[in-house]
Amino acid sequence: MHKYTIKVPSSTSNIGPGFDVLGLGLKLFLTIHVTVHDDERPTTIDYTDKTPKGSVSLDLEENLITKTALYLARSYGTTLPNGLEIMVDNDIPLGRGLGSSGTAIVGGVMLANVACGLNLPKERLLDYCIMVEGHPDNVAASLLGGFVGSYLNEKASSLPPMKWGAENTIKQEDIPYKTSACIKMKWSKAIKVVVVIPKYELATSLARSVLPQQYDRKDIVFNLQRVTVLTHVLGDDVPNPEVIYEAMQDRIHQHYRQKLIPGLPEILALKPGFMKGFIGACMSGAGPTVLILATENFEAIGKKIQEIFMNYKDESGKPIDSYVKVLEVFNDGAVVINEDEN
Ligand SMILES: Nc1ncnc2c1ncn2[C@@H]1O[C@H](COP(=O)(O)OP(=O)(O)OP(=O)(O)O)[C@@H](O)[C@H]1O
Ligand SMILES: N[C@@H](CCO)C(=O)O
Fold this sequence. Notes:
By secondary structure, this protein is α+β, with helices and mostly antiparallel strands. Helices cover 31% and strands 24% of the residues. Helix 1 links the parallel strand 3 and strand 4. The radius of gyration is 20 Å and the shape is globular. Adenosine-5'-triphosphate (ATP) binds next to helix 1, strand 4 and helix 2. This is Homoserine kinase.
């Protein structure tokens, strides 16, 4: 019997105007403990108490980690072996905009890569992650770590949605190579991330469904200008809050999604100077979590955003409760740690 652990960082994405482009790995992890037994017992997956019972399926064909692993394995003509005892310890809240689905997908490809002895490079694993997730921002940040920008090449963006299950297996040679280009960019050590996480879920699929199919040219140019400037100024050793704040503005997604996140318009309107250390606020991924960039005073800023959320009501008519996390950027991406041979 031997053991190994797969550790995958969560991510935030978009960071304002960088819709489906920008991602940032964060020190909040999905940890997958794998015990490889020497017998042919059926492979199983389970979760620690951090994941509410019933919130995820334990069926290997339904669970996002294991079904992603099966998707990769089957494309290479193999499958997950028997004898695996998988225990998942997840610190990332589901459906909150912290890339939980992206980390599960990355965890799944890393699992198949080790369990099936595929030994594929991360560049190839990313192709599979993008086939599953459909957009590169979260999975690139969780797989590679750090502050990343990605584009999908024409092949990837014109592919039909992938289908689950053995009957829909696609051979690996038919899964496009290099579906995206990813670059890691500098993130200023002076800029910390505060996330305020409402206690309700917002499915990314719903948050994407409210976006328009077409945009005015002026809105596209508005975002292009800002995402270009933003990717540079977030690397400045001495951040300029006024420039970063303006570069964080967006006209592609946040405006259309604010009806799904009560309180968001008031939070997005907060400007540098509203509190010491505050730079700007935006949605984290598809929400409902709010991402705040700040240089100091992190807990106090988070508390103020919590108070704003409390002035609004959720679907049940109750004040919106939330919790605050101050998170460091994680630069190393997903890793496999071999435990001692028993
Ligand atoms: N560790 C996990 N194990 C199994 N399934 C998971 C795991 N993490 C996420 N999922 C699946 O992904 C769903 C959440 O994905 P969704 O894209 O809606 O939100 P998110 O990824 O948390 O937020 P965002 O994509 O905006 O960052 C969960 O409801 C669950 O079905
Ligand atoms: N860019 C994606 C991130 C969600 O994971 C979106 O905003 O829908």
